[in-house]
Specification:
Order of helices and strands: EEHEEHEHEHEHE
Strand content: 15-25%
Distance between the termini: 31 Å
Shape: globular
Number of strands: 8
CATH class: Alpha Beta
Structural class: alpha/beta
Oligomer: single chain
Helix content: 25-40%
Length: 214
């Protein structure tokens, strides 16, 4: 059974003091309009996170229970310029504080539009979370927008860039529309929560590529 199939919304949090008790959680982060909500919905198999044509709609930390006090966490999209500066500052404090101090957080799934990966804002977000030493798995969403060869080229470039940041970074191609990379992403997240051991499952090697070589 899919790790996320039975995810149920629990609460929205505006301050770090309101975070629920947790035995483990996976956070999804991404630049506004990068396809984060669509990626979550693809993994869940139904509409769970709100998909908006207006970037910056998600302003709270949203918790979805997976059972056993484990959570999928939908973080505010970052970097939308039309959001007032005061609100952006609040988001930064909330997002940065959560990523840097949340003990039950097992890892971060960072969603990037494959056509615009590793923007300055993405690198800033990785800079917040990277020093924790917890794993980061990048989903290069909207992979269907590029040809196979173009997608592979971007994947290799992002892989090389992430390798400079450390061995706890990995990356894969992902398409919510074509359901590309769902099983491979879930294998990563299951391992974070301790539900499986060992390496990634055999599958489409174009879909998942560690950000470091052996």
């Amino acid at each position: 059974m899919s790790l996320f199939r039975n995810a149920v919304f629990v609460k929205s949090v505006a301050t770090l003091g309101d975070l629920p008790e947790s035995s483990g959680e996976i956070a999804f982060a991404g630049r506004s309009n990068a396809g984060k909500s669509s990626a979550i919905n693809a993994l869940v198999g139904r509409r769970l996170a709100f998909v908006s044509k207006t970037p910056g709609r998600t302003q709270l930390i949203n918790f979805f229970t997976l059972g056993n006090a484990q959570f999928l966490v939908d973080l505010p999209g970052y970097g939308y310029s039309k959001v007032p500066a005061a609100i952006r500052a609040e988001w930064k404090d909330l997002l940065g504080g959560y990523l840097q101090t949340r003990a039950p957080l097992r890892g971060a799934a960072v969603v990037m539009d494959i056509r615009h990966p590793l923007t300055e804002l993405d690198r800033r977000m990785l800079g917040w979370f990277g020093p924790t030493g917890k794993p980061v798995h990048v989903l290069l969403t909207k992979a269907d927008k590029l040809s196979r060869s173009e997608a592979r080229t971007v994947l290799a470039r992002v892989q090389a860039d992430l390798a400079l940041l450390g061995e706890h970074f990995s990356v894969q191609l992902f398409s919510s529309l074509r359901k590309t990379g769902l099983d491979d992403a879930e294998a990563v997240f299951r391992r974070w929560l301790g539900e499986i051991r060992g390496g990634l499952p055999a599958g489409n090697q174009d879909a998942v590529t560690p950000a470091f070589g052996h």
